Input
Amino acid sequence: MSIQEQIRDQLNGSSIVLYIKGTPQMPQCGFSAKAVQLLSACGAHFASYNILENPDLRQGLKEFSNWPTFPQLYIRGELVGGCDIMVELNQKGELKKLVDQAQS
Output
């Protein structure tokens, strides 16, 4: 299975997927920690993948999404964006709406 197929499988496996440095319990960068905090505050149930454990996944995601940085949040298979976009959406009340729609 190619890395692109693995990414598609991961995105199909959960309606909310967060690719981060580290784990939700032990994020390895401030942006990943903030992303986890924002999703948790929205009551999101999400799958997460530690890109530091898998260099192929890290590189494959950059190509898959055409987005160079992490974290990367996907909702229903669509790239929402990284930490800055999540903060902006949260301030507008949009992040919770996206989460609620994905979990309904």
User: Anything to note?
Assistant: The CA atoms of residues 72 and 81 lie 6 Å apart. The chain has a mean pLDDT of 97.
